[in-house]
Each structure stands twice: as structure tokens, then as C-alpha cells.
């Protein structure tokens, strides 16, 4: 072989070697990113044609796939779409996935490593691949009760099992219909998605876990907890409760609701919670101090993200506050912000003898042959209260429902503890209404938080006891069997 031919042969072999190396690199190292590329329609077509596993609430399928008879083979169905949309999210052709459809996508699609053996069996037996099923912790009765009770109000509701952290309900309104976005008519699905995204009511906002708002007087539970823990107070301790309080180093006065008296110059801590006395709790916060109050809030879960599988947001207690800001923060104003999930966690920790459990939304993942692939074990997060102080604060919450601002949550035969809240976020908009509760008081099975962003009623009629407490009552009645 002469030299020119030899050179050409070496060059050709080198090119083949480079081509082989590039192909190997693409298959080994870039397969995932190429499959995930939104421009890769072949991969999208393949994913959209999968027989995805079901998502369940109890025995109720809240998302499943059925044969479609078209080029995509299987249609994703959400039989109770709007009720469970904040939990399931959606599975769409052009707009990917959200909610549990997103965080458990590989398990539902059957491509997760935990299903490798199953995929091999399907390959050998020439069976179409099938995804795993996701068992949520949602109680369908509580979920529907919350959805129905919220009615046309814009807001959210969350319920937790205080002993385990299992989320029993997660509702956000207004909601949306994931069936329209999951449609195989791609053009119609895109139109539905655009309309939903542009809706001024923000129906895709998960107000229950992904949004944070001023919690108002429901935060007084955290301030009360700090006073019991750090100041050695008890429910009968007397606290100052002036008609108005001059905020430190300012010329601004803090007033009680409707500029009213709380019942005297000095009242018990229980009565201060009953009537939600702003001046009393602002002074308590000043005595507790910013560092201790922030630490107590952190122990209740503030500052950390929870329920990451639905994109839960961290609630906030400000890092730095002056004395005036501390007084306002102590009553859930200034820059304090919390999700309904977070305020349900506060009640859950009080209900559970002062032990805060990590909230979770999925209990088990099962293969198509029902083998358990993973199971969530309840996990303790922190202990913001001693058992003794938790019992005291629980009884103070019961007094709020029996004698104070939370009477709309009373249920004959069931001891309910609660705390109302009305929070001003902006002078130009109506206040928010809150209610958080636990029940039955003797052996709590449920902790709830209800948030009403807009009830379309006059400003002067907005109150946590009037708007949010009846929703919590409906949820408790659905959960607690008498």
C-alpha cells in the first residue's frame, strides 16, 4: 500500500473512531438531556403514550390512564379534576407536568430504577410497560368537605394528622380542570393552558402550600407558645392589655380590633387569646424578645420548605426587626408570612404534645403487581413546646372556640380548639381571614388551617371567625367520627 492510500485509510479510520466515540458519548452521557429536550418530539410522543400509574386518595383514583384509541394510546384522566388539582397537577403534551405528576413522574411512567426488573419482565413477555401507582395521604371526605365549604371564596384549606404529619386535605380555590390541559387535542390543550395561566384568579396558584401570606392573629399561637416556654407564664397569668399601645421609638399607636378594650387593663393570657388582644400579644412579644420569638417560629417550621413534592414554600419570620417591628411581628403582621400548610403545622404541633411531625403527601408507591417500592415513615421535625405547655395552649385554644372569637367552629360532642386571624396586607385591599384548629381536643386526630383571600363581601364583614371557621368546622366533621 502506497503512502497516500495509507494516509487516507488512517484518516477514514480516525473519522470512524470519532464517530463511534461521539455516538457512545451521546448514548451514555447525553441520553437523559436529549430525551428531556422539549424539541425532541419523538421522546415526547413516547412519554405521552405511556400507560402511567394511578394516583389515589384512599380507594379513590384521582388520576389514571385509560386506552384512548388514538396515536397516543393512553389518555390521562382526572375524575375529580378541580378538587384535587393542587395535589395531582397535570400531565400535558406541550406543558410538561406539575404537582405529583411531576415529582413522581419516573415512577408513574414506569421508567424509575425501582421498576427495572418489572421493565425487563414486560420486555421478555412482550407486555406494554406500566407505571407505578402513588397512594396519597389525602382523605377524600375531608378534601371534598373543604372544597365545598370554601364555595366561591378565593383561598385555601389544609388538614394534617398531627400524630404522623400525613396531609389529609389540600384545597386551593379557584382551581382548574387538568383534564383540559391533558387533552390529546394538542391545540385545544394549549388554548386551555393559556386561558388558565392568564386567568386573573390565578387558579394554578397552590395557595395551600406554595404561597405565603400575613397570618395575622393566628400567629399569636406562636407568641403564646414562646411566652409559655421562655417566660414561664401559664394560662391564668395576668398580662397588660391597654386600649392602645405606643409602638417603641415611634409616634404610632397599635390598637385592638375596632379600637375596643380587651376587657380591662390586665387580663389573663387565656382571655387575651379568647379576644385576640393585639396590645397584650405585642407586649408579650417585646418581653420574649426577637431572638426567642424567631427561634420558636423556626421550631414550628418557619424558614424551611415543606412538601417539596408540590413545591411548598418556606414561611417567613423576619431576620432583623426593631422593637416596633417586633411588636407587629408578634401579632402576625409586619413581614411575617406563612402558608396555610404552615399554620396547620402550628396547630398540629400543639395537638401532638408539642411534637412537630414532618408533613407528607404520599404514603406508598406500588409497582403494577402491588409490591411496595417505597413507604413514607413519619418523621419528627422539632419540639417547639413541652408536653405540659402544649396541653396548656391546647386548652387555651378550646377556650377561644367556647368563649372567644372562634364560636363558629363549635361542634356538639367534639372538643374543638382554634384561633382566628384577620390580616391586613395592604391598605388598598381587603384583609385576609384565617382560622386554624385542632380536634377532638382530648385526643386530636386532625389539625386544620383555612385561609380566605377574598370572599367578595364588604371589608367590615371580613373576620376569621365568620369566614374561615365554618370551613374548618366542615373539615373536622368529615374527619372525626362521632
What does this structure look like?
With 482 residues, this protein is of the alpha+beta class. The chain has a domain at 216-362 and 379-479: Beta-lactamase (3-Layer(aba) Sandwich). Helix content is 38%, strand content 17%. It contains 19 helices and 17 strands. The chain has helices spanning 3-29, 31-36, 41-48, 81-88, 99-103, 105-109, 116-124, 140-150, 178-181, 186-198, 220-230, 269-274, 278-288, 290-299, 323-329, 340-351, 387-403, 464-467, 469-479, and strands at residues 55-57, 60-67, 74-77, 133-136, 154-160, 167-173, 238-240, 244-246, 253-255, 266-268, 356-357, 362-366, 372-375, 380-382, 417-423, 432-439, 446-454. The strands form 5 sheets. A 6-stranded mixed sheet has the order 3-2-1-4-12-13. A 5-stranded antiparallel sheet has the order 6-5-17-16-15, sandwiched between helices. Helix 11 (220-230) packs across helix 14 (290-299) and helix 13 packs across helix 15 (323-329). The longest helix is centred in the N-terminal third of the chain and has 27 residues, at 3-29. Mean pLDDT is 89; it is low at 457-461.
- In the sheet with the most strands, the strands line up as 3-2-1-4-12-13
Per CATH, the architecture of the domain at 216-362 and 379-479 is: 3-Layer(aba) Sandwich
Q: According to CATH, what is the topology of the domain at 216-362 and 379-479?
A: Beta-lactamase
Residue share in helix: 25-40%
| CATH C-level category of the domain at 216-362 and 379-479 | Alpha Beta
Number of helices: 19
Q: What is the rounded Rg?
A: 27 Å
Q: Runs with pLDDT <50, length 5+?
A: 457-461
CATH homologous superfamily identity of the domain at 216-362 and 379-479: DD-peptidase/beta-lactamase superfamily
The largest β sheet comes out as: 6 strands, mixed
Briefly note the structural class of the backbone.
Answer: alpha+beta
Amino acid at each position: 500500500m502506497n503512502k497516500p492510500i495509507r494516509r487516507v485509510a488512517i484518516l477514514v479510520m480516525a473519522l470512524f473512531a470519532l464517530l463511534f466515540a461521539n455516538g457512545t458519548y451521546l448514548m451514555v452521557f447525553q441520553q437523559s438531556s436529549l430525551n428531556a429536550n422539549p424539541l425532541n418530539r419523538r421522546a415526547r410522543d413516547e412519554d405521552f403514550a405511556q400507560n402511567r400509574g394511578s394516583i389515589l386518595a384512599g380507594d379513590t383514583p384521582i388520576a389514571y390512564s385509560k386506552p384512548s384509541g388514538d396515536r397516543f394510546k393512553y389518555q390521562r384522566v382526572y375524575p375529580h379534576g378541580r378538587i384535587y388539582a393542587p395535589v395531582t397537577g397535570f400531565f400535558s403534551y406541550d406543558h410538561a407536568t406539575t404537582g405529583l405528576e411531576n415529582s413522581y413522574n419516573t415512577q408513574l411512567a414506569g421508567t424509575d430504577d425501582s421498576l427495572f426488573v418489572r421493565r425487563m419482565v414486560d420486555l421478555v413477555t412482550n407486555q406494554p410497560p406500566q407505571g407505578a401507582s402513588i397512594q396519597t395521604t389525602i382523605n377524600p371526605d375531608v378534601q371534598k368537605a373543604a372544597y365545598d365549604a370554601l364555595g366561591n371564596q378565593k383561598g385555601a384549606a389544609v388538614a394534617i394528622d398531627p400524630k404522623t404529619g400525613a396531609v389529609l386535605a389540600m384545597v386551593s380555590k379557584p382551581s382548574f380542570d387538568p383534564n383540559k390541559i391533558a387533552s390529546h387535542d394538542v391545540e385545544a390543550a394549549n388554548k386551555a393552558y393559556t386561558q388558565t395561566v392568564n386567568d386573573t384568579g390565578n387558579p394554578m396558584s397552590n395557595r395551600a402550600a406554595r404561597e405565603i401570606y400575613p397570618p395575622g392573629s393566628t400567629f399569636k399561637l406562636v407568641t403564646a407558645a414562646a411566652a409559655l416556654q421562655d417566660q414561664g407564664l401559664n394560662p391564668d397569668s395576668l398580662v397588660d392589655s391597654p386600649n392602645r399601645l405606643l409602638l417603641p421609638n415611634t409616634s404610632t399607636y397599635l390598637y385592638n380590633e375596632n379600637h375596643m378594650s380587651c376587657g380591662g387593663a390586665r387580663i389573663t393570657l387565656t382571655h387575651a387569646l379568647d379576644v385576640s388582644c393585639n396590645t397584650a400579644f405585642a407586649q408579650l412579644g417585646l418581653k420574649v424578645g426577637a431572638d426567642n420569638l424567631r427561634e420558636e417560629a423556626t421550631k414550628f417550621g418557619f424558614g424551611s420548605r415543606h412538601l417539596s413534592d408540590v413545591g411548598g414554600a418556606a414561611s417567613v419570620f423576619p431576620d432583623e426587626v426593631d422593637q416596633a417591628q417586633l411588636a407587629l411581628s408578634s401579632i402576625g403582621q409586619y413581614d411575617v408570612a406563612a402558608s396555610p400548610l404552615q399554620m396547620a403545622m402550628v396547630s398540629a404541633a400543639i395537638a401532638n404534645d408539642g411534637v412537630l411531625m414532618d408533613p407528607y403527601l404520599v404514603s406508598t408507591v406500588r409497582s403494577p403487581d402491588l409490591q411496595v417500592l417505597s413507604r413514607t415513615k413519619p418523621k419528627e421535625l422539632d419540639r417547639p413546646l413541652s408536653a405540659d405547655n402544649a396541653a396548656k395552649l391546647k386548652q387555651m385554644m378550646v377556650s377561644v372556640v367556647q368563649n372567644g372569637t372562634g364560636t363558629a367552629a363549635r361542634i356538639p360532642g367534639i372538643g374543638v380548639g382554634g384561633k382566628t386571624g384577620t390580616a391586613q396586607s395592604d391598605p388598598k385591599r381587603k384583609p385576609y381571614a384565617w382560622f386554624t384548629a385542632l380536634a377532638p381536643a382530648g385526643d386530636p386526630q386532625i389539625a386544620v388551617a383555612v385561609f380566605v383571600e377574598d370572599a367578595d363581601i364588604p371589608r367590615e364583614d371580613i373576620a376569621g371567625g365568620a369566614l374561615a371557621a365554618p370551613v374548618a368546622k366542615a373539615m373536622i366533621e368529615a374527619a372525626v367520627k362521632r
